[in-house]
Structure formats: C-alpha cells, structure tokens
Please model this.
Amino acid sequence: MKTFALGGVHPPENKISEKAVTEVLAIPPKVYIPLGQNLGAPAKAVVEKGALVKVGQLIGKGEAFISANVHSSVSGKVAKVDDVIDQSGYKRKAIFIDVAGDDWDESIDRSDNITRDCHLSPEEITQKIKDMGVVGLGGATFPTHVKMMVPSGKKADCLIINGVECEPYLTSDHRLMIEKGEETLVGVTILMKALKVEKAYIGIENNKPDAVENLKNLAKKFKGIEVHALKVKYPQGGEKQLIKAMIGREVPSGKLPIEVGCVVQNVGTAFAVYEAVQKNKPLFERVVTLTGKSVKKPANYLVRIGTPVNNLVEASGGLPEDTGKIVSGGPMMGKALTSLEAPVVKGTSGILIITEKEATRPKMVNCIRCGRCIGVCPMGLEPVLLAQLSAAERWEDLENELVMDCMECGSCHYTCPSGRPLLDYLRLGKNKVGQIIRTRAKK
Ligand code: SF4
Ligand code: SF4
Model:
C-alpha cells in the first residue's frame, strides 16, 4: 500500500465518532458570520443593520483576487456588523443575525435528487464556484476558484482528491464519503471538467475501509476516477505528501502542486462544489465533528456557518468537568479556542475537547540533540534549528533555512522527548518571516 517517503509519525487515532451518522444541528437563535473565512482578504459587507436576509443570500463580497464571497446561513434580521472573537482568538468583522424561521433563497435546489450531468463550460463552472463562496474545506480555506485557475504556461494533467483525514479524532470527511459519496464524486467530475483533466485520484487512509469500499464501488459508474487506499501515516493529508504518496511526484520547495501538473482538493470541497454547481447552493453549512474522550455524545453535525461552538458542545451533552482545552481542528494542527462563543466557519472541520490530563504539556527540558524532530519532518527541515533561530529572532536566517516550507504539521513537536514547544516557535517564526516577505513584495 502506498504512502509518502520522508518523515511522518503515527499518533494514536481515537476516531471515536467515526460511526456517528451526521445529524443536522438545530439552527441557533443568533449567528455571527465572519467576513474573513478564507485565506486571503476578507469579504466586504453588502448588508447593513436592519436588513432582512434569507438562507443563501450574499452578505459579503470577496473583492480582492484572493478572497471569497460570504452568504447568510440563516434567515432573519441583521442585528449589527461588528467585531467577533473568532476561532483564531483575534477580533474579526462579522455579520450578526437574529434568526427568524428558515426561509431559503428560492434559487437553491433543496431536493435530494442527484444531478450528475453538468452542462456548464469550464469557465462557467469556475465562476459558479466563485459566486457560491466555495473555499478549501480541508482546513486551509484557500478560495477554490483561484486554485482552479491554472497559471499561464502551466498545465494540469490530474486532479488529486484528499480523503485522507489523517488528523486523529476527526471524522467529518469520513462520514461525508459514506453518506454523500455519489454527490462527492459528481463534484469530482465537475472539478475535472473545469480543469480539463481526464484523471482524478482519490486518496483515503486505510483506517476508513468502509469509505474506501463505498467510493470504489461508486467510482465504477464514473469515467477516469480511481480510488486508492493509503497506508496510515500522519501528515499524509498535506498536499505535497499526498501527491508523493499517490503518484510519486515531488513538488519543489516553495512551489505549488501545479508545478508537477496537479491540483489537490479536499473531499469536502468536492461535495461543496457539487452543491454549488448542481444545486445553486452557496457554502453556508458544513459537517463538523464534536469529539473528545470525556464528551458524552461524540458526534458529527451538519452545522450552519456562524453557529457558536457552544451550541455543538451543548448538543453533545455539555462541557465535561475534566475539560482542559477546547481545540478547533485536530490535536496535531488544531488551535486552542479562547471562547465557546466563537462561531463555526467554513474551515472548521472539528471541535475537540481535550481532558485536563491530555492537555498537560510534558515538562520542558533541554534539547538532548537526539535528532528525532529532524527524522520525522515530512518537509526535510531541521525543526530544532528553526526553533532556535525563531527564539533568537534571527528572521533572515530563519527564511534562509526555509521556515516557510514548514506546513505546521506538529510532527516534530509530537515526537520531541524533551517537551520542546517546537510548533509554537515555528508558527511564530513563520508569521514574522511571512510579514517580512509581504512587505518586501510591496516595495
Ligand atoms: S518543522 Fe514544520 S513541517 Fe517539519 S515536522 Fe515540524 S511542524 Fe511539521
Ligand atoms: S526532538 Fe527535541 S530533544 Fe530531540 S533534537 Fe529535536 S528538539 Fe532536541
């Protein structure tokens, strides 16, 4: 069975919600929908206080090249446009809506009929994806329409679909592949048409045999789609690792997958593309896993964007007494939440409630120069050195040592026997170097 070659770790999986069939979460009385839910510039509000909105109505327009539209996930009245503390812990502009009923925009097809044929041209498909505010749902939230625009001089020959879901605990993609397999594959064919490629490869780690079997069976009805089971190894969901595992191509440092003829999309994104193109449905809800060892009811919920995290926690039996930390995402790459009022956004794949015992960090001691962090780095970096440079604020050296190649997978941090907070240093360093690079580009 295939996997990527360089580095990687095997954290315990704990996929305790994998059998929990997706439930529709009740619509909350209030939602806070951030205007910046994508990698790139935030959208600009196109509604004001007092406006009446329907489900699926455009409320934020992505005007920059890298930006995405934002739609209302509920019907009701705009209470205000104000700052909200989002999952990053920072304040961001959001549209606050008081919910009234569940009145959908008439143009959205709400039937369960699966529409397989798509008569739009590649350009029309990309425009539709843009209009509907689709972004990458694997966590990176890069606007999907931008990813579909192959730069001149480059050519895509295959599409790679990421069904790996390698983060321990998370199961939202797993459920989607079982419950919405056919729709997801139609989404894949639409992406293939937009990219003008004949082949798509779907990679799924072998700890989800039911998803592999389901998609393999369904793929027989589609031309050019192959489904492959992959050996379990974290972080196989990284684009570069997945490409290497699936088709053996290596994306050079600082380059994008298109350099080796690939475009990578997540399974959740393929499903969102299906809904956008075939159902005229903007991206205003998604599947979110709510899980943790002490959670009364670990579950997968279909959640309207803007729903406060607290609503998911309450639906699963409330906050366990021994809660040590609440994380958005998985235990490897996720970020701790500062408030349960933070809204679910397009990039929220899961909410993980970590017990006090699990949240206790090992005591940090001196680096023993064991080199384990170097051995597990899937990007071939030297995390111990990068962390030292970051701590010493040597930003230029940090850039030269390719800190921007770090995908923040946390494998180094996970494996360090000295409890060094490597990922914290790396994120700090990437942030600073990223700022320096952006400032330089503007000059
Ligand atoms: S340096 Fe970055 S890419 Fe390498 S293991 Fe650490 S977090 Fe992952
Ligand atoms: S794994 Fe930890 S102790 Fe070992 S070299 Fe890296 S930072 Fe030092």
Q: What stands out?
A: The CA atoms of residues 135 and 232 lie 26 Å apart. The pocket of iron/sulfur cluster (ligand 1) is lined by residues 376-379, 381, 383, 406-412, 422-423, 426 (CB under 6 Å). The chain has 14 helices and 17 strands.
